[in-house]
């Protein structure tokens, strides 16, 4: 039941991401909002979860992860209802911020709950089911987004979360047992400094992608980078640091986190680029462009639980690295796309990257949590999600910046958000830029593969220290009877 509840939360978050993408043109028209304003409907969620996830994971360690997870579901459900009743684009962005607060609790504590309730030898399979939940949610979001937006109305893409949230909260209150609490206190100074670092960098990056480089967004990112130094100095002296820097002494943990960040930075940009190709160069609608990716998601969802079990048996680093290798191969194939490439070939490439994702995500999650002490599962889980969210924002920045280097920025927005196709020489020039971007993303994924390879190969990631943290003390076995 714990696994089911966590998978339900993962599925809910995944549905809400893909379902919003398909409704962008309709939302913009109904609320009479500009494209830049509507873009913030998804970006505000990414920005706030990036800032809050690490801190909310720490709060989960303090108050109990079961309480934090249930509270997150309540806030997310309330935020979804508010989004459905939004009267203006500004209201919708504000209510998406409420959703983000609940989502930050969910994603910060979900991985921690799996690590708390499953022994190390079974975590890979459990993470495989959560990866399956994400892939199934993406498919459902694509299908439901097209149906609900077309036949019922875009507001119901948010209303659909209400019954799911009510069921999830009821199950959580019944089946999530009280979690052990850490005897720590919040590091308010460290939390403030870390929040400032992430806010300045993330907001500056989003603004750069949306409007181009100017003195304000460049200054914001510089301020965020400069604040890293006082944050590190404070955390090294703090008695209860918001982010325990000593965790990075673990080679397995630090390299796994780095692999997660660069995989997110490189692979999500690939999805954006592919959709821009299908809509801008091939002229497909957002719905048809997304449906072309469904086979990859379905295969990834089907394979993830098995990949997690294989990671338990033969070692997470092998399958995570193999998954990255398949992603690189798929991206290099995408870099060969032409104006007349058969759509079937694109779907087949999506199958290759889908297999790669199924191998990487559960294996890497298992590796991240393998060296995390139990009293800091929430903090490590939150840090993992923060890094992947920052990678998502970085992907968006890279894609829009590369596209805007060839065509005007508003045209790039129209390609991604409104599904407007390009014609003539503009389409050919845009395709050449996409090729360069695919190659750039392959390089980013190669960096992720390097970090994955650097992980210490341990059979089934059997870390004695992690096993000692996770298992209760056992009585010594009695000596064998004497041969006499």
Short description:
The chain has 19 helices and no strands.
Q: What keyword list fits this structure?
A:
single chain; 484 residues; mainly alpha; Growth Hormone, Chain: A; 2 domains; globular; disordered C terminus
Characterization of this structure:
- The chain has 484 residues and is mainly alpha-helical.
- It folds into two domains: 2-186 and 242-459, Growth Hormone, Chain: A, CATH 1.20.1250; 187-241.
- It has helices at residues 2-30, 35-63, 65-84, 89-117, 120-152, 156-159, 161-175, 188-211, 215-226, 228-237, 251-281, 286-291, 294-314, 316-334, 343-370, 377-404, 409-418, 424-453, 464-470.
- The chain is globular, with a radius of gyration of 22 Å.
Average residue pLDDT:
80
The share of residues in helices is over 70%
Distance between the termini: 51 Å
Quickly count the domains: 2
> What is the count of helical runs?
19
Query: From the 3D coordinates, which CATH architecture of the largest domain would you assign?
Result: Up-down Bundle
Low-confidence stretches: 459-484
Percent of residues in beta strands? under 5%
CATH superfamily membership of the largest domain: MFS general substrate transporter like domains
- Order of helical and strand elements: HHHHHHHHHHHHHHHHHHH
Class derived from helix and strand content = mainly alpha
The biggest beta sheet is recorded as: none
How large is the radius of gyration? 22 Å
């Amino acid at each position: 039941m714990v696994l089911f509840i966590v998978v339900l939360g993962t599925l809910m978050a995944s549905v809400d991401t893909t379902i919003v993408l398909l409704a962008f043109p309709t939302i913009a028209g109904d609320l009479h909002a500009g494209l830049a304003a509507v873009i913030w409907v998804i970006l505000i969620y990414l920005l706030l979860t990036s800032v809050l996830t690490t801190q909310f994971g720490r709060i989960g360690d303090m108050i109990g992860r079961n309480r934090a997870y249930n509270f997150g579901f309540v806030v997310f459900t309330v935020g979804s209802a508010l989004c459905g009743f939004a009267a203006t684009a500004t209201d919708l962005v504000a209510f998406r911020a409420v959703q983000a607060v609940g989502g930050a609790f969910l994603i910060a504590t979900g991985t921690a709950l799996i690590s708390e309730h499953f022994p190390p030898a079974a975590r890979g399979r459990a993470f495989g089911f959560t990866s399956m939940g994400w892939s199934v949610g993406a498919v459902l979001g694509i299908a439901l987004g097209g149906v609900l937006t077309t036949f019922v109305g875009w507001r119901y893409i948010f209303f659909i979360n209400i019954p799911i949230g009510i069921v999830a909260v009821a199950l959580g209150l019944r089946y999530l047992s009280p979690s052990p609490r850490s005897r720590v206190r919040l590091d308010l100074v460290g939390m403030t400094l870390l929040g400032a670092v992430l806010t300045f960098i993330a907001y500056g990056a989003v603004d750069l992608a949306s409007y181009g480089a100017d003195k304000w967004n460049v200054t914001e990112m510089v301020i965020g980078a400069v604040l890293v130094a006082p944050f590190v100095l404070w955390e090294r002296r703090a008695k209860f640091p918001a982010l325990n820097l000593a965790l990075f002494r673990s080679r397995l943990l630090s390299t796994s986190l780095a692999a997660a960040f660069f995989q997110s930075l490189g692979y999500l940009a690939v999805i954006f680029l592919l959709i821009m190709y299908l809509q801008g160069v091939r002229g497909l609608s957002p719905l048809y462009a997304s449906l072309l990716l469904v086979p990859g998601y379905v295969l990834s969802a089907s394979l993830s639980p098995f990949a997690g079990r294989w990671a338990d048996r033969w070692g997470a680093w092998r399958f995570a690295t193999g998954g990255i290798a398949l992603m690189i191969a798929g991206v290099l194939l995408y870099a060969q796309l032409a104006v007349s490439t058969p759509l079937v070939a694109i779907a087949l490439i999506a199958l290759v990257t889908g297999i790669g994702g199924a191998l990487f995500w559960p294996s890497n999650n298992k590796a991240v949590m393998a060296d995390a002490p139990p009293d800091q599962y929430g903090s490590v889980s939150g840090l993992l999600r923060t890094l992947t969210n920052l990678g998502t924002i970085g992907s968006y920045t890279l894609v829009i910046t590369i596209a805007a280097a060839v065509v005007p920025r508003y045209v790039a927005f129209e390609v991604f958000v409104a599904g407007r196709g390009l014609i003539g020489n503009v389409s050919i020039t845009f395709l050449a830029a996409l090729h360069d971007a695919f190659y750039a993303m392959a390089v980013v994924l190669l960096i992720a593969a390097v970090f994955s390879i650097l992980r210490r190969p341990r059979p089934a990631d059997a870390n004695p220290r992690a096993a000692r943290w996770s298992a209760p003390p056992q009585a010594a076995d009695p000596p064998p009877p004497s041969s006499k």
